[in-house]
Structures are given as C-alpha cells and as structure tokens.
Amino acid sequence: MTSPDASLDAPLSFSDLNLAPALLAGTVAAGFAHCTPIQAATLPLALAGHDVAGQAQTGTGKTAAFLLALMNRLLTHAPPAGRRLNQPRALILAPTRELAVQIHRDAEQLGGSSGLRVAVVYGGTGYHTQRETLEAGVDVLIGTPGRLIDYFKQGVFDLKAAEVVVLDEADRMFDLGFINDVRYLLRRMPPPEQRLNMLFSATLSHRVTELAYEHMNSPRLVRTEVDQMTAVGARERLYHVSSEEKLPLLRALVAEMPGERTIIFVNTRRASEKIEQRLQGQGIVVGRLSGDVPQHKRLALLTAFTEGRVQVLVATDVAARGLHIPHVALVINYDLPQDAEDYVHRIGRTARAGAEGDAFSLCCEHYCYALPEIEAYIGHKIPVVPVPDLQALRARHRADRPARRHPLNSSPHAVSGGGDDQA
C-alpha cells in the first residue's frame, strides 16, 4: 500500500481530468470548478484504475470523488458479456439510511446526463418499491448492508457482474457492527483484481487498513489534512457553565444568530425534548431528531431543515455522521460528547467544503470529564471564552424579540422515537 503526497501546488480543475463529457456536465451543473484536496488526491488515481483507500473528514468532497470515478469507469468500459438486468455493475455500501439517501441524490445530480440507472435501498420503509426497482434493472446500487443482504438472499439481485465497489464511512461500519455483513457481500463479488475498489474513512485505523488489504487490489493510501482533525473553518469556543446555566446560555447563543441554520447536539433524548420546548417558546421553528425514528419522518425533517423551513435541529448523535446539510452556520454541543471522535463529527456539520462556521461547546459538571480526551484527540485546546451576562442578554432579547423572531411561521416539526431516556 503506497501513500502519495496529497498536496498540490495549484488547484486541479475538473476540466483537466479525463472525465466523460456527461460527468463533466454534471460537475458544471453542481457548481464544481476545482477539486477539493481529497478529490485532487484520489480522482487521478481512481480514474487511472488504481484502488484507493482514502482518509478524509466529513464535508471534504469525498462523495463526489468516488461517484465520478465510479461512473466514469462504467461509461468507459463495456458491461460484462451476458450481464442480466438484476446484476448491478457497481455497489456503494453506506452505514446509515441518511448517508445512502444523500449519496443517491449526489449521484443523480452528477450523473443525470450519463444514462446510468441508479437506485438506493435501505431499511425502515419502501420494501416492495425498492425490490421492484431492483428487479427492473440497475447499474449503480447504493444501500445499507442489512437491506442489501435481505434482497441478495432472496435472489432479487446478485453481484457476479460487479465492476466497482465503494465502502463509505468504513470506520462507522465497524462501530455499528456491520462489518461481517460487509464482508459477506464483498466475498460474493468477482475477485478484487477484476474490479475497481474504493474505501473511505474518517480514520484509517488498523482494522480499516486490514479490511483494505483483504478485499482490495494493492490500494493507494491517501490522507488529507491529517494534522487537522477538525474542520479548518470551524471557529471553536468552549463555555464552562453549571448545569443550571446551560439552557439560558443556549437560548442566548441561538438568539444571537437569528435565522441562521443551527444544529444542537445533546447526549440524551430527554434533553432534546426539553430544549425543543424552550426554543419553541422563543418563536423559533425547531425540529427534534433522536433514535428509532420512523424513516419517513426522519427524511421529512432533514428535508425541511435543508430547505430552511426549520431553523434549528436538536439531535442526538444519530445525526452526527454522514449527513451533508449545506450552510449550517452554527453547531452547539449542549452536552460534550462522551466519545472524542463524536466531537469531530458533530462540529463537522459546519464549515463544510471550505466554508466557515461556529462550533460552541457547553462544558458542565456532568460531562466535563470528556474534555481532556477530546482535546487530546483533536490535538489542540478548545479556546475558552467567558460566559456572558445572561440577565442582560435575556433583557435585550425580550426587547428585540419581534425583530429577531425567525420569519418562518410554519408549525414546528417534532420528530422523536426510542432512545436514551437518561436525565
């Protein structure tokens, strides 16, 4: 496994790559002109037929990198002789339903003029509709491991004609216990040397690189921004507060940025319910996302948040990974996460793809023990700022409330489900 230098002296333009015309048109339609670092490092290798194992933080453009390489391979190579309609030519494995749906949207945008048939399958909804789509024929199949294996074992599709495979968020596959399912699918494809293989992960740990050695063909190891764990444009702040001060401070911070798209992360479902109620009392359109949510409600809320009909999203870590939500200006860790990696993924919801954003963390006596591990993991101290005069802020916001209220007057979206009910 070799490791090329991912730095470039000048930005690489998509027009400089040997992309099929339909895909180049897709980059123009998406507003892409120059490659991000992970795209510039991986695309020339993958387009030349080399397997790639890439480390990249969320929001760096890795999805477009593997989609363009995958679709270019299919457009420039004839399908295997005798291939049937229910034999996809490419498979993309994602750990969560939300990530699978997002990859599908990006694929439709970038490959809209390619003529390739793209489908997505995931658990929780649409069982018969997804099955019928597969039976009708698909070139690029995107899905979560459980639903894919369900259809595979029923003979709805097989993987004998797979020419490309992508494993996205490989570290998350391990975390969620899906890795045996992933190996099950990989072992039912043609040998690694007969296909193009791409793997992406936030960390290229030993277990991830071992997976790459096992199921890829001499992959090129690509790392970008290895010395910067957090998003470059994220302005971090830390407030040391008591538990009693957290909610008043949160309300003040949200009121200071009226109309801005904001995600608030909490550790428990009960905390999310409390925050939702209090913010609604400020006239803010707020949605709540926690575990075991029905899929159709989850997708509806995320769509409303992405389109700006919901201003604030209160979420447990179910929403921390794999979601591409543009223009999030502010992330607030109401509770410090208990896992250091989750801190990186949470604040990675803002400052995506070179943009800037704010990431505030409230450090109270219940979760302060996690701070040393977080700072050791990210490699720097989070700047501490003093807690403002909350009484003065509340008085000012009461006076300004009519002017500061979010202009949307639709009813709040509340989505809840099972999960941790800890206080």
Strand % is 5-15%
Which CATH top level class of the largest domain fits? Alpha Beta
Mean pLDDT: 84
Order of helices and strands: HHEHEHEHEHEHHEHEEHEHEHEEHEHH
Per CATH, the architecture of the largest domain is: 3-Layer(aba) Sandwich
Largest sheet: 7 strands, parallel
Task: Tell me roughly what share of residues is in helical segments.
Answer: 25-40%
Derived from helix and strand composition plus strand pairing, the structural class reads alpha/beta
Q: If you consult CATH, what is the topology of the largest domain?
A: Rossmann fold
N/C terminus separation? 47 Å
Give the name of the CATH superfamily of the largest domain. Answer: P-loop containing nucleotide triphosphate hydrolases
Beta-strand segment tally: 13
Spatial shape: elongated
Radius of gyration: 22 Å
The strand order across the widest sheet is: 3-4-2-5-6-1-7
Poorly predicted parts = 2-8, 402-423
Number of domains: 2
DSSP helix count?
A: 15
Compact overview of the structure:
The chain has 423 residues and is an alpha/beta fold.
Description of the structure:
- The protein is α/β, with parallel strands linked by helices.
- The chain has two domains: 14-223, Rossmann fold, CATH 3.40.50.300; 234-404, Rossmann fold, CATH 3.40.50.300.
- Helix content is 38%, strand content 14%.
- It contains 15 helices and 13 strands.
- It has helices at residues 21-29, 37-47, 62-76, 97-110, 127-136, 145-153, 170-175, 179-186, 206-215, 243-256, 269-280, 295-306, 340-347, 371-378, 390-404, and strands at 52-55, 90-93, 118-121, 140-143, 164-167, 196-201, 220-223, 234-240, 262-265, 286-289, 312-315, 330-333, 357-363.
- The protein has a seven-stranded parallel beta sheet with strand order 3-4-2-5-6-1-7, sandwiched between helices. Strands 8-13-12-9-11-10 form a six-stranded parallel beta sheet, with helices on both faces.
- β12 (330-333), α13 (340-347) and β13 form a beta-alpha-beta unit.
- The longest helix is centred in the first third of the chain and has 15 residues, at 62-76.
- It is elongated and about 75 Å long.
- The model is unreliable at 2-8 and 402-423 (pLDDT under 50).
